[in-house]
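Input C-alpha cells:
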C-alpha cells in the first residue's frame, strides 16, 4: 500500500507540478533548503544546500509543507526584527536599517512595487515599528532578495551592515536586562 500511495502522489506531483527539476524548495519539517534533482513516480531526489542528497518518498510529500522558492519569480521577501532602546532616535534607527539593507548586493534597493496575487509590496527595504516591547522598540525590516539560494548570506550581510551603521549613531540596540535596588528594608546579604 505505501508503494501505491507513493505512485499516486508521484502522479499528482508530475501533473500538478508544485515543483519541477531545478527548483529550489524548502522542507519545513526538516528545515532543509535544496534543489530538486529528479522526480519519479515513487520519490523526489533533492540536493541540499549543505551538499547532501535526500530521497523523499512521494507518499510523504503531500503531508509536508514544501515551499518552492523558484516558481515563476525567484524574488523572496525576508524579515528581520531589530530591538532598539526607548532612548534611541527611532526615526534615525529606521532610516539606518533601511539604508543598511539597501547596501547589500542581492537585496532589491527599490523600483516598482512587487505584485503577489492582488497585493502590492514596496520593492525597496522598509522598516516599520512592529511593537513596543519590555526592553525597547521592536523594529521590523522587510526586504526582498533576488537569489533564493543566498538567503542566509543576505540575512547575515544585512545584519552586519545594520550593526556597522548603529555604532556611532544615536541608536542603541536593546537587550533584556534588570536593575536591582537594595535598601535598608532588603534584608541582609
Amino acid at each position: 500500500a505505501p508503494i501505491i500511495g507513493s505512485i499516486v502522489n508521484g502522479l499528482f506531483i508530475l501533473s500538478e507540478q508544485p515543483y519541477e527539476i531545478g527548483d529550489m524548495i524548502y522542507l519545513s519539517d526538516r528545515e532543509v533548503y535544496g534543489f530538486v534533482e529528479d522526480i519519479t513516480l515513487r520519490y523526489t531526489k533533492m540536493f541540499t544546500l549543505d551538499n547532501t542528497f535526500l530521497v523523499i518518498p512521494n507518499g510523504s510529500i503531500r503531508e509536508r509543507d514544501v515551499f518552492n522558492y523558484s516558481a515563476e519569480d525567484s524574488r523572496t521577501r525576508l524579515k528581520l526584527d531589530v530591538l532598539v532602546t526607548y532612548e534611541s532616535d527611532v526615526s534615525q534607527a529606521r532610516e539606518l536599517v533601511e539604508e543598511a539593507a539597501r547596501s547589500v548586493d542581492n537585496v532589491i534597493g527599490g523600483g516598482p512595487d512587487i505584485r503577489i496575487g492582488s497585493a502590492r509590496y514596496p520593492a525597496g527595504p522598509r522598516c516599520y515599528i512592529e511593537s513596543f516591547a519590555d526592553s525597547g522598540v521592536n523594529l521590523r525590516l522587510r526586504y526582498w532578495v533576488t537569489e533564493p539560494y543566498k538567503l542566509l548570506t543576505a540575512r547575515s550581510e544585512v545584519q552586519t551592515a545594520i550593526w556597522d551603521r548603529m555604532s556611532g549613531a544615536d541608536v542603541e540596540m536593546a537587550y533584556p536586562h534588570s536593575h536591582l535596588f537594595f535598601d535598608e528594608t532588603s534584608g541582609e546579604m
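The radius of gyration is 23 Å. The beta strands are 24-27, 32-39, 43-48, 53-57, 66-68, 76-84, 114-116, 119-121, 126-132, 137-145.
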